[in-house]
Automatic annotation (TrEMBL):
Any GO BP annotation: translation
The protein, known as: Uncharacterized protein
UniProt xrefs under InterPro entries: Ribosomal_eS21, Ribosomal_eS21_sf
Gene Ontology cellular-component annotations: ribonucleoprotein complex; ribosome
UniProt KW keywords: Ribonucleoprotein, Ribosomal protein
Domain of life: Eukaryota
Family indicated by similarity: Belongs to the eukaryotic ribosomal protein eS21 family.
PANTHER family per the UniProt record, alphabetical: 40S RIBOSOMAL PROTEIN S21
Origin organism lineage: Eukaryota, Metazoa, Chordata, Craniata, Vertebrata
Alphabetized Gene3D superfamilies for the sequence: 3.30.1230.20
MF terms (GO), sorted A to Z: structural constituent of ribosome
Length: 89
């Protein structure tokens, strides 16, 4: 496919799961992708930045994603500092 500048670009770019590094296929509708916002620790408001986390179907199928599983996955991505401002306790 060509973009407006005339450069050849891919129509689809493959994604990988954040923790498993498995490729998420085109027809895979069981995977999820989330944007976790960054919160300013002083003000407590959204600072216009976010981190993207993709969770592949294997993790979704093997575990029901409870909040502690989600925190474990996001801790692996070094986002716990962001979640401390969002999650109570």
């Amino acid at each position: 496919m060509q973009n407006y500048s005339g450069e050849l670009v891919d129509l689809y770019t493959q994604q990988k799961g954040s923790t498993s590094n498995r490729i998420i296929g085109v027809k895979n509708h069981a995977s999820i992708q989330m944007n976790v916002v960054e919160v300013d620790k002083v003000i407590g408001r959204f600072n216009s930045q976010f981190k993207t986390c993709a969770i592949c179907e294997v993790i979704c199928r093997e575990k029901t994603l409870y909040i502690h599983d989600l925190v474990t996955i996001l801790t692996f991505r070094c986002l716990l500092g962001v979640l401390e401002c969002i999650l109570p306790g």
